[in-house]
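User: Fold both of these, please.

Assistant: Here is the first one.
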Amino acid sequence: MDYIAGKYPDLLSLYQEIYNRGDRSYWENLDTELQKYAAEIGLDYVTNDDSMSRPFFAPPVIVNYFYHSEIKKSARKGGENNA
């Protein structure tokens, strides 16, 4: 947190809420915004999933990898295609 405090003091309280107190509201709000955006532009939206198999010319998919704690947990499982 010292780096954030020194370089980005205006973001320090947000970082403390997220990383020290485990507050997920920032990520949940971002997830909601991304879901709305994907729907508006007609793209599929998934969270922490890179296992989708799609044809080469299929439209892109928006994948939200912002839930860091869940990514770490899925990576520990050692399963195929986990982030």
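And the second sequence with its predicted structure:
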Amino acid sequence: MTEAWNMMKLPIARDYVSESFKDEAVCSPGFYNAETLVLFIHDAPEVYAQTDPLSNKVELHKSFLLDHANTCIEWIMSQNYGLIDVNVPAMLTGVDDPDYTIESATKELCLYTWDNYIELADAKNVIFFGVGKACAGLINLIGARDVTKRVKASLNFIGQDPIKGIQGDDDLKMWYSKHAISYIASNHPLDPEMKAKRRWGQIKKTPRIAMHEILITGFDDAKYFIEKQICEDPQASGNPELKRKAPEL
């Protein structure tokens, strides 16, 4: 995928984040000059495998990789958006501090990416797109930096994980309730029909449980929301996709 779109490695200073991330961040050519820039941060792809019934060893020829990132990247690039793509590794290497977790490392990485790249870019529209536990980094970033003038939408594919609320004043929580959507699994304990707290943003429960299926189910809705947020007057837009209602999950 990176070769198909001529992606380049995004330099990450090791003093700020785990060395595990040094080869996990890439960017599209010319992302600095794009009018719309997407920060796409996601967990590592899921691997499904069958084991031999006698030896219990994994049979590689019956294993397959579910890379949910490819579909997202193809759409982002087809829209001529700039892209910063970060794959969050399942394990951290070279870490001595037991309190330094994937979640804390992801939070630091999101802050670093905003401070050193996104804030300096020309983008008028910034989109946050998170999948899995990586969403925690984006939610933390919104509360830690002044992003509301440029960030038009924040999409969080949470799955079965607990939903983390935004930390900030009432104005920020109100902004978040209008600009953020979290997609959750069908078996998630949170009921979207209840009066959702503003700090959670909008909650949409999908009829799926597996993360790759949740992403497939909610992706059209996420695309619609992004385009609607970027366009100030959707009804006046020449994009026919914005003249219909949001897709059903």
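The mean pLDDT is 83.
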